[in-house]
């Protein structure tokens, strides 16, 4: 599967475009639309580079989800998971109760897991709460 425009728009809406490197709430250097690989203080990019980073990152997470999820997904489920894994990372997802529930075909249970992922550095963040509600809604669509 590939991420639909709904999935891309969700990522863009919650990551926002930043052309200069910044520390995200989890204290990770970030640039563009949530790109973190190799980013360091002082980095600057163009909007075109941000789009290229986004496309590459989305492809990586699509591949990770395809590898980890052992059951068929709807487009909405796939889009929601790409946004989710884009934010929390493959390692966290690979060890998650959410993934176990998905692979057990407990999709309702998996949808309820989104609300557990609203913390960064031990702090509950309103932005993550909004993102998880949006991802759950897409997952259930």
From TrEMBL:
Q: Which InterPro entries match?
A: Bacteriophage_GH24, Endolysin_autolysin, Endolysin_T4_type, Glyco_hydro_24
Segments crossing the lipid bilayer: none
Which keywords label this protein?
A: Antimicrobial, Bacteriolytic enzyme, Glycosidase, Hydrolase
Query: EC class of this enzyme?
Result: hydrolase
**Reaction(s) catalysed (UniProt annotation):** Hydrolysis of (1->4)-beta-linkages between N-acetylmuramic acid and N-acetyl-D-glucosamine residues in a peptidoglycan and between N-acetyl-D-glucosamine residues in chitodextrins
The record, for CDD domains, names: lyz_endolysin_autolysin
Q: What is its EC number?
A: 3.2.1.17
**Pfam families per the UniProt record, alphabetical:** Phage_lysozyme (PF00959)
Q: Which HAMAP family match?
A: ENDOLYSIN_T4
Describe the family membership recorded for this protein in Swiss-Prot or TrEMBL.
Answer: Belongs to the glycosyl hydrolase 24 family.
Name of this chain's protein: Lysozyme
**Organism of this sequence:** Limnobaculum allomyrinae
